[in-house]
C-alpha cells in the first residue's frame, strides 16, 4: 500500500510530505501538513534569528505525545539546498532558508534552539537573561520580567522580553559588538545578584533546581558560546502549540500569559504588530561593563 504524501513545491525544489494528516499537536488540531504550511508563513520572522548560528532541534516523529530526541548532527540524506557547518565532530544544519526550514518541519522538528555564538564571529551581538520559574505555573512571572526591565532602564538600557514558549521568559538586548561572552556574563551576574538582593522572596541565582524552592531563577550563565536557547518564533512541543514570542513591556505589565501565544494565532499577531524584536536598537554595553565593580 502506497504511503499517503503531499508534494510541496519550494521554488525549483519539491518536498514530499509523508503522512500529511498525522496529528502533531492533537489538542490544537494541528496536523503535519498544517504545521509545514504554518512554518512557511513564519519563516520571514524565524529565519533572521537562526541563520548564521548552530542549530539544535527536537524531533517528535509521532507528534508531541510520542518519543522525542535532540538532534545536533544534520539528518541524512541531505538535500542539496541545505547548508551545514562543522563544529568539532558535529555537522550542524544552518537554518537559513525556507526550504531548509520546511525540510526540518517535514522531519518532525518541532523546536528550533540556536547557539548563542555565531558561526562566523566570536564576539556576541546580543545579551540575554533567561528568567526560569521553578514552578510550572508561576503567577509572578511577568512581575519578575518587569523588574528586570526596570533595572535595565535605570542603567539607560532597553531590551525586549520574549516568552520561551514553555514556562519562562528571556530578556533580549541587541548590542554593538565589543564585549566578550565572559564580559556579558559579568553584566548578567551583576543584574541577577542585584535583583536577588532587592527581591530575595522572588529571585534566586541558585543553579540547582532542588535548592530553589518556589523562587524564580535568573540564569545569566545560559547565554554563552556553545549554549542554546529557543529562537524567537520557534514552536514548542507543548499541548497548546505555544511559540516563543517577543512581547511589549505594556503586555508584560498587563500580566499576559505565555500560553496565549501559539501556532494558531501567531501569524495574525505578526500581521498586526510585526516583529517587536527585529527593530530594537543595538546598544553599547561596554561603558556599563567597564563601570562594574571589580569583584563582579
UniProtKB/TrEMBL annotation:
Domain DNA ligase D polymerase: 31-276
Gene3D superfamilies, per the entry: DNA primase, PRIM domain
Pfam families hit by this protein: LigD_Prim-Pol
InterPro entries: LigD_pol_dom, NHEJ_LigD
Signal peptide (UniProt feature, chain positions): none
NCBIfam families cross-referenced by the UniProt entry: ligD_pol (TIGR02778)
PANTHER family: BIFUNCTIONAL NON-HOMOLOGOUS END JOINING PROTEIN LIGD (PTHR42705:SF2)
Name of this chain's protein: DNA polymerase domain-containing protein
Organism in which the protein naturally occurs: Cohnella terricola
